[in-house]
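User: I've been going back and forth on whether these two constructs are worth ordering. Before I decide, could you fold them both?

Assistant: Sure. I'll take them in the order you sent them. The first construct and its structure tokens:
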Amino acid sequence: MTQAPLETEGDLQLVKEYILLPILLDVLERDIKALGTVKLKMDVVYVKALRSAQDLITADVTLLRKKMRGRGIKVYEQRRTELCIEARYLCRGYQHRFSMLWGLVKAELYKYLSKYLNVDLRSSL
């Protein structure tokens, strides 16, 4: 009898990205709308850069879904609370839970957005 494969670190990373990238898309959309209400000299360039990041993120979400399907992972419930974001998912038939505090979510979103905009957050201003 073969043992069921355990959830791997890669599986958890896929779930984490699946939860975070749609939040990042929402944040970018809100920021684009905010840019429309502020009078800036080069607002078109900023909006175009953010839209380009949205396009890259959307493509990554599509690829992410395909990878998850291939590994037998399905997120079936997400919930946002005052303290954290929670998700329940199946991984090769076994139920799992995932949660992240909002402070960590924010830090991860900074990391992802800096990657998509090709900005090094480690350098000082």
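The second construct, handled the same way:
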Amino acid sequence: MRNILLVTFAALAACSANPAAAPAEPVSGGPPQPTPVHGVTPGHACNAAGTDSFVGQVPEGNTGSAILRASNAAVLRWAPPGVMLTMDFREDRVTVWTGPDGKITKIRCG
């Protein structure tokens, strides 16, 4: 019994260790690449300025893809009525709210 407890605690301790991140390797002899930050996709910063044309439409087939392209976001989040959303900010995410009729009511970044 005591051995089982020791093994369990050792396994938990190993899981909780947070080793320092290894430095990024240079790509093809170039400068080191930055380590990605959680919630950020390199090259994608949402800009909802060009998405107004989608407001009032019912989302169909490739509407989500078109919104991603128009906003330069990497992540699309749908927000139907009554759904709770996290309040964390992600510069690479676009959120699309829909009304009870299924039409898009607003589009915002974050």
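Notes on the second construct follow. Strands lie at 75-79, 93-98, 104-109. The CA atoms of residues 13 and 33 lie 31 Å apart.
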